[in-house]
Amino acid sequence: MDEPISGSFAPIGKLDTIASINSSMKEKRRDMLDKKIVMAVVGVMFFLVSVAFIMGKPQHRDSRIYPIVREYSPFVVENGLGGLKIKRRDNPSFSEEPDAVNFYSRMEELEREWAKRHLKREAGELLVMDDNGTVLKRIELKSESERRFVKEYYGVR
Q: Residue ranges of the domains in the chain?
């Protein structure tokens, strides 16, 4: 009767079993959490890559109108060691190297700026003009999709 009373009434063997079960459950939870974090990071990376791909994708270009106008556009694309470059035919010192995501949007922006001064719609035709306003080429706009392309891509009304 004079024995000291310990703080726990459970036998020591049962305490060890409970502690090992608790530690294994904690490890399983930690493993599940690690897997969820990895899956979340992979999901975010996939989303960011998809957004970059969509943003870097060029806008639709009409297969008949665009190549004709392109002949008169001063901008050319060159493939260099560092990637694609935008150069001007009439100004050899002009050179831009936008990153891959922004390349097509920058090219479209430059073409729109050029089109404001050099393209004009008149009576169902697209007129391509030089710097002096002299008509170099008349392109008949045969369909509604061609008219819409000229309006949306080049901003010519």
A: 1-57, 65-154
